[in-house]
């Protein structure tokens, strides 16, 4: 869709406003809305000005003028506004017409351009499985003299004895007992179906939805794979629709990796593959899991660079509340076919040559998808260029339940960093693979590390409620 088609859509759909959006460093959307009669072909040529100094991690006040350049192919009708509104995703440029090196979407596009320049393939395909919770209530505060959080859900197993419901109807979801039960245990079938309906209207090709493992309203909706930047665009659309549909139902959705203690967290398993034209490059019939040597080298790159990569794929302090041994969130840097305890799983059920892919299970949805997908691709490409063999480096394949291995056996397996600070240290030491082809710049990486270190410090210096349980009587 070009600019002229967008303008025709505005007329045909009686659109009253056009919402121009971009994504910041942390992966959150921002927008400026123009009346539809103020949008013309020049808008798509000259862009929409905004103040970059007011966006965390972007620019200082002395160089704050920036430009959103609309991408007409991303347009869709907002399903939530009272007045008909068209949403258009934008890239960020400087006033002199240069792509802004801290714009996440531009980084994703440069990663795709770099793939083509290597001659390895023409397109990388991504498909994230982004899990979430839908709660009925959330309360939190962090102040000088108090700090707490509390979430509630009619599904929560802690509510089996609650009387405030006007007659407790039971059928709560047991801890770790929420994987694909039917109604009435799954109380959120209709809300997820409405999310799917709205996603389809907005152009997403949804494949399925279901309740996930945890109690208290954990769910998952899967949409079809696409190329790197388009998939990141789709994930931003996906999260927007989930957040706002939940709100329309009087509920609240969160993609936090670990909002509950003692039950499964929410991950973002990322399926990925490379094609050259119509030819899948990850498939080799009869090899281990039908994987080509190129695919194995791609796996080798991801596992080798994983400690640094995780600073971009799991970029929150809360990420490391999920990345603990014993849960489905894999902390073990090995690959295996059909094994959900490994960092990289190779799907083997009902897989065709074109469907042959790897699944990196460690990431979560606090990641900025443009940055995370670009970083994963660059790590994999580095593995291909350097012919990194994961088997030679002790990364598997390991076709065992890793959680049931002895302590001695586990000591032989590399693990993910134990905190955001550790991951940032790894990124500081290992990021040359990200700067290949100028995709990430040194300046971007330095700024990103400083931005995330500030977050980690904010958490580290605050008194934790559990410390009162441990130390108040000292």
UniProtKB/TrEMBL annotation:
It catalyses: L-glutamate + NH4(+) + ATP = L-glutamine + ADP + phosphate + H(+). Residues 104-474 form the GS catalytic domain. Keywords: ATP-binding, Cytoplasm, Ligase, Nucleotide-binding. This is Glutamine synthetase. Residues 13-97 form the GS beta-grasp domain. Belongs to the glutamine synthetase family. Pfam families: Gln-synt_C, Gln-synt_N. InterPro entries: Gln_synt_N, Gln_synt_N_sf, Gln_synth/guanido_kin_cat_dom, Gln_synth_cat_dom, Gln_synth_gly_rich_site, Gln_synth_I, Gln_synth_N_conserv_site. It is found in: Cytoplasm. Its EC number is 6.3.1.2. It comes from Thermobacillus xylanilyticus. Gene3D superfamilies: Glutamine synthetase, N-terminal domain (3.10.20.70), Glutamine synthetase/guanido kinase, catalytic domain (3.30.590.10). SMART domains: Gln-synt_C (SM01230). Its main location: cytoplasm.
């Amino acid at each position: 869709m070009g600019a002229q088609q967008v303008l025709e859509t505005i007329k045909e759909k009686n659109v009253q406003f056009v919402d121009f959006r971009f994504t910041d460093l942390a992966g959150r959307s921002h927008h400026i809305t123009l009346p539809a009669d103020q949008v013309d072909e020049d808008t798509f040529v000259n862009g929409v000005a905004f103040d970059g100094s007011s966006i965390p991690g972007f620019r200082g006040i002395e160089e704050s003028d920036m430009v959103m350049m609309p991408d007409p192919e991303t347009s869709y009708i907002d399903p939530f506004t009272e007045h008909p509104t068209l949403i258009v995703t934008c890239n960020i440029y400087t006033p002199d017409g240069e792509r802004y090196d801290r714009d996440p979407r531009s980084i994703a596009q440069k990663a795709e351009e770099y793939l083509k320049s290597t001659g390895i393939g023409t397109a990388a395909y991504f498909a994230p499985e982004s899990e979430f919770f839908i709660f009925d209530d959330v309360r939190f505060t962090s102040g000088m003299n108090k700090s707490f959080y509390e979430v509630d859900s009619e599904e929560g197993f802690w509510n089996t004895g609650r009387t405030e419901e006007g007659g407790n109807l039971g059928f709560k979801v047991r801890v770790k007992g929420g994987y694909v039960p039917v109604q009435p245990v799954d109380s959120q079938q209709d809300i997820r179906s409405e999310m799917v309906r709205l996603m389809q209207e907005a152009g997403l090709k949804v494949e399925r939805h279901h309740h996930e493992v945890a109690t208290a309203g954990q769910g998952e909706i899967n949409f079809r794979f696409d190329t790197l930047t388009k998939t990141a665009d789709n994930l931003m659309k996906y999260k927007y629709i989930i957040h706002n549909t939940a709100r329309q139902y009087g509920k609240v959705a969160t993609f936090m990796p670990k909002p509950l203690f003692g039950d499964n967290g929410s991950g973002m398993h990322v399926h990925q593959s490379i094609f050259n034209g119509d030819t899948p490059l990850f498939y080799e019939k009869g090899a281990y899991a039908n994987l080509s040597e190129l695919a194995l080298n791609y796996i080798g790159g991801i596992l080798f660079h994983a400690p640094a990569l995780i600073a971009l794929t799991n970029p929150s302090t809360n990420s490391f509340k999920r990345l603990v041994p014993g849960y489905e969130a894999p902390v073990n840097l090995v690959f295996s076919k059909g094994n959900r305890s490994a960092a990289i799983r190779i799907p083997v059920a009902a897989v065709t040559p074109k469907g042959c892919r790897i699944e990196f299970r460690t990431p979560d949805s606090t990641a900025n998808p443009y940055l995370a997908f670009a970083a994963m691709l660059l790590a994999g490409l580095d593995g291909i260029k350097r012919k990194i063999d994961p088997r030679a480096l002790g990364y598997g394949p390991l076709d065992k339940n890793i959680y049931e291995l002895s302590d001695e056996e586990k000591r032989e397996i590399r693990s993910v960093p134990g905190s955001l600070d550790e991951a940032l240290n790894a990124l500081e030491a290992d990021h040359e693979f990200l700067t290949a082809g100028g995709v990430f710049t040194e300046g971007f990486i330095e700024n990103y590390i400083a931005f995330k270190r500030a977050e980690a410090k904010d958490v580290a210096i605050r008194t934790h409620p559990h410390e009162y349980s441990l130390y108040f009587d000292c």
